[in-house]
Amino acid sequence: MRILVADAFPEQHLTRLREHHDCTHEPDTTADELPGELAGVEVLVVRSTRVTEAAVAAADSLRMIIRAGSGTNTIACDAASERGIHVCNVPGRNAVAVAELAVALLLALDRGIADNVADLRAGHWDKKRHSRARGILGRHVGVVGLGRIGLAFAERVAAFGVTVHAVAKPDRDRETLDRAEAIGVRFVDDLTALARTCDVLSFHVPATAGTRHLVDRDLLSHVQPGAIILNTSRSDVVDEDALVEAMDAKGVRAGLDVFADEPGGGTGEIDSKLARHPHVYGTHHIGASTEQAQLAVADEVVRMVDAFAGGEVLHRVNSPHQVPAS
Fold first, then answer.
1. Which residue is catalytic, options 262, 284, 303, 316?
2. Which family does it belong to (predicted)?
């Protein structure tokens, strides 16, 4: 099969793909350039690169798109379905990496790590200002989304002596409930109750119509003054204007790995009022960007490509209307 890997990918895994397939690696491809790279490509592998409707329309042989990560909101899934193209993800392999970043953002916000570093690099010593941390022990942390990442975050933050809370749902599987019980998760009735109960809210949900702007003016009206909002999932989860208002009015702080209007590639310019706010500690959508996570994801991508060559589709997230023969 002819494969295009249009993002960074471990060299050892490219070697494995090339043992059985015609594999091209173009890691610096942008969303605008991608349509011109797809002639004859049967399998496209992306991580951060957006796959637009224009790219799908330009593909003359494409049968499968693999998102080397969990979320597929950067892929024109409907357009792919219309053309009978499988869209697949790699769920769970980067859960620990994202959870680790969420914990890091919480600790960094509490201790003012970034501001400490900035002052020292500027040659300014201000121990009085930087000695105002509250501490994590005894806090009430609400986890929104008890999937692989949410559970991994809950398990790690619980080690700091916090009480973990989540919204009760009737359809959770036994494994999730067992892990939640082991952590000591306390369940509340709804998101409003979670906001009123907790002084930290961490969001670990996919981008869907139901999760768009979960963090809106109504929810933020219920959070405690000085509460911390963590979002390492998708930018659509947060109404950015509403969050800025809450930070100004109630001293809410935020640790964010995702922002609206992020550049489509690995580098670029971003003009974000939210990212510039002094109550925000932001990172560059790097939740899954650890060597451990990327190697685990790449292992699964190779397995998925080999399985597809044998007629099996793994981790499909769409419903192609006309599936091309494999």
1. 262
2. Belongs to the D-isomer specific 2-hydroxyacid dehydrogenase family.
Asked if 262 is an active-site residue, the reply is yes
- Set 277, 285, 300, 315: catalytic member: 285
Establish whether 213 is a catalytic residue: no
pLDDT single digits (tens) 225-278: 999 999 999 999 999 999 999 999 999 999 999 999 888 667 789 999 999 999
Marked catalytic residue, from 234, 277, 279, 315: 234
CA-nearest of 6, 74, 15 to 41 is: 6
What is the second-level CATH architecture of the domain 95-282?
3-Layer(aba) Sandwich (3.40)
How far apart CA 205 and CA 225 sit, in angstroms, is 24
CATH of 2-93+290-309, one of 3.40.50.720, 3.40.190.10, 3.30.450.20, 3.90.550.10: 3.40.50.720
Among 184, 181, 183, 164, residue whose Cα is nearest residue 173: 181
For the chain, domain boundaries: 2-93+290-309, 95-282
Helix ranges (H only) for 68-112 are 77-82, 95-111
